[in-house]
Amino acid sequence: MKTLILIIVLIAANTIQAITGFAGPLISMPPAIVLVGVDQAKAIITFIGWLAALIVTIQNFKYIKWKELGKMILFMFIGMYLGILLFDALPLNALLTFYAIVVLAIGAKNLLSQTLRKKERSSHKLPVPILFLVLIIAGMMQGMFTSGGSFLVVYAAVMLTDKTEFRATVSTVWVILNVFLMYNHFQWGFYTPETLKLIGLSIPPVFASIYIGNRIHDRLNAEAFLTFTYGLLIVSGGILLFT
Domain extents for the chain? Predict the structure, then answer.
């Protein structure tokens, strides 16, 4: 039963990931942690997220904005390294509580912004050094919980105004950074036979979710979809916080 629920969660999350280029791991990680534990959840979602992002990147390669990609990779890699160190050094329960609160706060803040019809690009008022700091924080969340997308979108929504360029460039970020994370997960022994089995079972549904996401991408009302996505973040964070 847990395996079936996990696959359903991954299908939903990666459909969203295929449409937007972000939010998939942030939605799927909290319930996955509850279902299979932190180590397995990180290994599964990192690999599946990498695979989904790779497909979207290949399909949209000509739309990648390479200059912005370089900035994202540089600052997020710094943050990701710090995030890995923090995850090893701090108590797991405290990290999980912090993570759940961050997910809830992001969902609530963005849902409120949608309700008030405020655009995410209002963050253009932020100074450039602050935007680079946001990228470092995105990397830290990626290193700790494979969930840096909600912070990356603050930067990317300012610098990438075309939705196809946004999706292509952000997806490429995950392709590159998740290779480093997967190497670390392998070194730490996360890829157990049970984990590999769950990854294998998840791959076909993920291909289906990418197909669905691509079909929806060009037709979707972006504002309505983001409202739905942020609502899912609130539910996802609540599951982790209160379980």
Answer: 2-242
